[in-house]
Design brief:
The protein has 5 helices and 8 strands. By secondary structure, the protein is an alpha+beta fold. It has a single domain, classed as 3-Layer(aba) Sandwich (Chemotaxis protein chec).
């Protein structure tokens, strides 16, 4: 299982391609191949997810009853938020235009390791979001890990 950590500043090229930082690329087990899934995040960011983790989500969704209207609505919303991407030998991948718009990405990006996935943020949006979240983090750190600060 991949375990992504850290924060990295990156640049997108003119075609909307991003190079995965070498430390993050090194966290990908070779058995996973070079295909990953790019997903629109719940915040204004993108999520880059190894296919092994994506398959877990897809298996959960496959077990739901498609005769339930809410299930169909959710699946439609879920699957249209995804786009498979292929890493080239340099660890570079193309971000589709609709994904660039969702993440408000132009030239620069901040990649955040989130354990089993990587978030891709517009640096300005990430700074604004992080500033609001600092106190929340302290409170949740105490709640989930029993630690303050």
């Amino acid at each position: 299982m991949a375990s992504f950590t850290g924060e990295f500043e990156c640049k997108l090229d003119a075609k909307g391609r991003l190079v995965l930082p070498s430390k993050m690329k090194a966290s990908l087990p070779e058995s996973l191949g070079q295909e990953m899934m790019l997903r629109k995040g719940l915040e204004p960011c993108l999520e880059l997810i190894p296919m092994i983790e994506v398959r877990k989500d897809h298996n959960k969704l496959a077990s739901l009853d498609d005769t339930d209207e809410d299930v169909r609505r959710f699946k439609r919303a879920f699957f249209r938020r995804e786009s498979p991407v292929e890493l080239d030998t340099a660890g570079r991948f193309l971000i589709p235009k609709n994904m660039l718009r969702h993440g408000q990405l132009e030239k620069d990006a901040v990649l955040i390791g989130m354990g089993t996935k990587i978030e891709i943020w517009n640096p300005d949006l990430h700074d604004a979001y992080s500033a609001k979240e600092e106190q929340v983090y302290k409170d949740l750190n105490k709640k989930f890990l029993g630690k303050s600060g």
